[in-house]
Amino acid sequence: MTTVKEIIPLKRDFIFSEVFNNIDNISILENFIATYLSLDKDKVRGNLKLLSRRLPNTKRNEARKEVDVLLDLNGEKIIIELNANSFKDGIKSRNLGYASEVFVQQYKKGDKELKNINKVLEINLNVNSTKYENNEKLDYLINKFFLIEKRDLNKIFTKKLEIDVIDMSKSIDVCYTYVDEREKVLAKWCKIILAETLDAIKINGEEIMENNELEKLITNVETLSSDDEMIRLESTHTKQEIAHMDDLKEKYEEGLEQGCYMS
C-alpha cells in the first residue's frame, strides 16, 4: 500500500465525518473513546453506538443542524466536533447549542424526576490554537469545562454537561510537555487528524491502533482522497482558506498604512 502520497487530510470536516460517522469504522471510534475516557477497551467494545448526526429543527425554516459525530455509550451521549478553522465566539455558541440540544432531547414526557437525563460530553477537536475569551491561550492539550461556582472553582453545579476543548496544535508543538500518558496517546490521534500524508497516519497509528483498524483508516482516507466529490469539496475549502488569508493580509496592510501596528 502506498503511504507517502498526499491526501485530503482528516482535519477537513467533510472527510472527518465521512470516516468517523461510519458504522464500518466503529472499532476505530471505540479505540479513540476508550483512550479519551481512560477506559479499558473491553468496556467500550460493543457498547458504543452511532446516532444520527442531524439534530431536530425547533423552528420552521431553521437551517439544518448536524454535528460531525454523535455517539451513545451506555446511555451517555458523546458529541465530537472538528473545528477546522478558528474557534471564535460564534462557533463556541453554536457548539454549545448542539450540546444543549442533545441534553434536552433526552427528556421523556412524564419523567418528573428526570431520571432519563444522562451526561452529555462534547469533544471539540480544534485544528488551530485555541484561546479563552480574554485572549489567553489554553494551557493544555485537553481542557475540560463545567458549570462552576465563580468563587470556588471546586464546586461544580453539574457534571452532566461537559465541554472539552482539544488544542490539537499542541500535539505538534515541541515545547509542550504532556501532563500524562493519556495526553501522549491522544496527541498521536491529533497527529493522525492533522496528517498530510498516509505515511504520517501510518507512523502515528502503528503505536496506538490495531493493525486492522489502521489498515481500515488508511484505506478510507486513500479512497476518499480520490473521490471526485471529495476533491471538489477540498478545492472549494482551499479556495475559502485562500480568500480568508487574503482578507486578513489586506486588513493587516491597511493597518500598517494607518500606523495601527508597532514593530
Please supply descriptive tags for the structure shown above:
41% helix, alpha/beta, two-stranded antiparallel sheet, globular, 263 residues
Q: Brief description of this entry?
A:
The chain has helices at 13-20, 26-36, 41-44, 89-105, 181-194, 198-205, 211-225, 228-257; strands at residues 48-50, 54-55, 65-66, 69-73, 76-83, 120-126, 142-149, 152-167. With 263 residues, the protein is an alpha/beta fold.
What does this protein structure show overall?
The protein is globular and about 55 Å long. Helix content is 41%, strand content 19%. By secondary structure, it is an alpha/beta fold. The longest helix has 30 residues, at 228-257. A 6-stranded mixed β-sheet has the order 1-4-5-6-8-7, with helices on both faces.
Encode the helix/strand succession as letters. HHHEEEEEHEEEHHHH
Mean pLDDT: 85
The helix count comes to 8
- The oligomeric state of the chains shown is single chain
Strand proportion:
15-25%
Q: Could you give the topology of this structure?
A:
Elements: H1 13-20, H2 26-36, H3 41-44, E1 48-50, E2 54-55, E3 65-66, E4 69-73, E5 76-83, H4 89-105, E6 120-126, E7 142-149, E8 152-167, H5 181-194, H6 198-205, H7 211-225, H8 228-257
Parallel strand pairs: 5-6, 6-8
Antiparallel strand pairs: 1-4, 2-3, 4-5, 7-8
Helix pairs in contact: 5-6, 6-7
